[in-house]
C-alpha cells in the first residue's frame, strides 16, 4: 500500500510539473502565423483565391479584386456612418450590391458569378434593378 501511494504521488508529480502544463497553454502555431500576415500578403492571398476559384487569368483576377475591394471599402464607410436611418442604410447597401454585381457581370460569365456572388446578394441586385 505504501508503495502504491509513493508511486501515485510520483506519477501525479511528473504530470503536473510546469513544463507539462506549459505545453498545453502555448499559443497555437497556426493562429500565430495567421496574425503575422501583413496587408500585402492578405491582398495577394485574395488575388490568388479569385484566380483559382474563378479559373481566370491574372488580369481578370485583378479586376475582380479591384471591384471587391471597392465594395468592401464602401461597406465599411457606410457602417461607420452614424447619422443615417435604417431604411436609408438598407437602400444604400442594396445599391452597393447592385453596383458591384453590375461591374462583375460586365466581365464574368454566369458560372463565375455564381462562384463569387452569394445567392442572397444576386437576388438583391435583381430587386434593385426591377424597382428602378
Your description of this structure?
With 132 residues, the chain is mainly α. It has a domain of 78 residues. Helices cover 83% and strands 0% of the residues. The protein contains 8 helices and no strands. Helix 4 crosses helix 5, helix 5 packs antiparallel against helix 6 and helix 6 packs across helix 8. The longest helix is centred in the middle third of the chain and has 23 residues. The radius of gyration is 26 Å and the shape is elongated. The chain starts with a helix and ends with a helix. This is DUF4890 domain-containing protein. Keywords: Signal. It comes from Pararcticibacter amylolyticus.
Q: What kind of oligomer do you see?
A: single chain
What is the strand tally? 0
How large is the share of residues in beta strands?
under 5%
What is the overall silhouette? Answer: elongated
Question: Keyphrases for this structure?
Answer:
mainly alpha; elongated; 132 residues; 8 helices
Write the layout of secondary structure elements.
Elements (H helix, E strand, L loop, with lengths): L1 H14 L2 H8 L3 H8 L2 H16 L3 H23 L5 H20 L4 H7 L2 H13 L1
Helix pairs in contact: 4-5, 5-6, 6-8
Amino acid at each position: 500500500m505504501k508503495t502504491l501511494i509513493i508511486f501515485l504521488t510520483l506519477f501525479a508529480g511528473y504530470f503536473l510539473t510546469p513544463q507539462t502544463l506549459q505545453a498545453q497553454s502555448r499559443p497555437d502555431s497556426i493562429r500565430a502565423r495567421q496574425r503575422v500576415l501583413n496587408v500585402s500578403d492578405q491582398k495577394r492571398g485574395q488575388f490568388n483565391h479569385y484566380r483559382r476559384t474563378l479559373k481566370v487569368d491574372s488580369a481578370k483576377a485583378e479586376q475582380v479584386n479591384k471591384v471587391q475591394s471597392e465594395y468592401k471599402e464602401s461597406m465599411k464607410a457606410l457602417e461607420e456612418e452614424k447619422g443615417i436611418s435604417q431604411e436609408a442604410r438598407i437602400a444604400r447597401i442594396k445599391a452597393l450590391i447592385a453596383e458591384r454585381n453590375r461591374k462583375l457581370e460586365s466581365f464574368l460569365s454566369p458560372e463565375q458569378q455564381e462562384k463569387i456572388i452569394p445567392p442572397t446578394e444576386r437576388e438583391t441586385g435583381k430587386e434593385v434593378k426591377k424597382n428602378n
